[in-house]
Design a protein that fits this description.
By secondary structure, the protein is of the alpha/beta class. It has helices at residues 11-22, 36-46, 62-71, 90-98, 110-121, 129-139, 146-151, 157-167, 172-179, 183-197, 202-212; strands at 2-7, 27-33, 50-54, 79-84, 102-105. Helix 2 packs parallel to helix 3 and helix 8 packs across helix 11 (202-212).
Length: 220
């Protein structure tokens, strides 16, 4: 059973998502929050698999709620999915940097919404390669962080290569083709890199790769 926490300051929005989720046999809404502080408190109380978090809420917004959840070791199993009206923007990028597994636009069709919840519950990031490339082009402009670069020394050469290709927006199959390995081996390299770098998911790998200078937005 996939346990879901809904966090949105608009009761009508929450009701709509809840009505949709309650129809599914494998999904259960365990709590609802109207602001970011309540969201974090309910996450600690119920330990959901997924927290669907509105980016703009009172008291504490979705970015701050994501930061608090990501920083709490007791909530390591909670995957935050950001809800937004506007698609990929700087607020969403900051939420991804804070530890969100991905984002959904609120006008998503019901079938895609339910599929996304199940994908996030498996621990997969909700970032298609095309979205990764868009995120890179628009928002990854900071100079490399030496501290982040030092963390990459824990990776093997193959793990570092796989992370660089993830950051370029390649899928696991494309990474396997580029590295002349199987998709399963590619996934293994990526998972080990996430463990060593303490990255919650693929989205954070992308951010770490660029912040460390492993790859640059317009490099080869």
């Amino acid at each position: 059973m996939i346990r879901v926490l809904l966090a949105d300051d608009q009761p009508l929005i929450r009701s709509g998502f809840r009505a949709l989720l309650d129809l599914e046999d494998d999904i259960e809404v365990v709590a609802e929050a109207g602001d970011g502080v309540e969201c974090v408190a309910l996450a600690r109380r119920h330990l959901p698999d997924i927290a669907l978090v509105d980016i703009q809420m009172p008291v504490a917004d979705g970015i701050e709620a994501t930061q608090r959840i990501a920083a709490d070791p007791a909530l390591a199993g909670v995957h935050v999915v950001i809800l937004t009206n506007y698609g990929l923007d700087e607020y969403v990028f900051n939420a991804l940097r804070a530890g969100a597994a991905g984002f959904l636009v609120k006008d998503i069709v019901p079938e895609d919404f339910l599929h996304a919840v199940r994908v996030a519950a498996r621990g997969d990031a909700l970032l298609a390669p095309s979205i990764t490339r868009l995120l890179i082009d628009r928002y990854v402009t900071r100079p490399p962080d030496p501290g982040t670069g030092h963390r990459l020394k824990e990776l093997t050469n193959r793990e570092r290569e796989a992370v660089a290709l993830v950051a370029r927006g390649l899928s696991n199959d494309e990474i396997a083709d580029r590295m002349l390995i199987s998709p399963l081996t590619a996934k293994t390299h990526i998972n080990r890199a996430m463990t060593k770098l303490h990255a919650r998911d693929r989205a954070q790998l992308v951010v770490l790769a660029y912040e460390s200078g492993l790859v640059t937005p317009h490099g080869p």
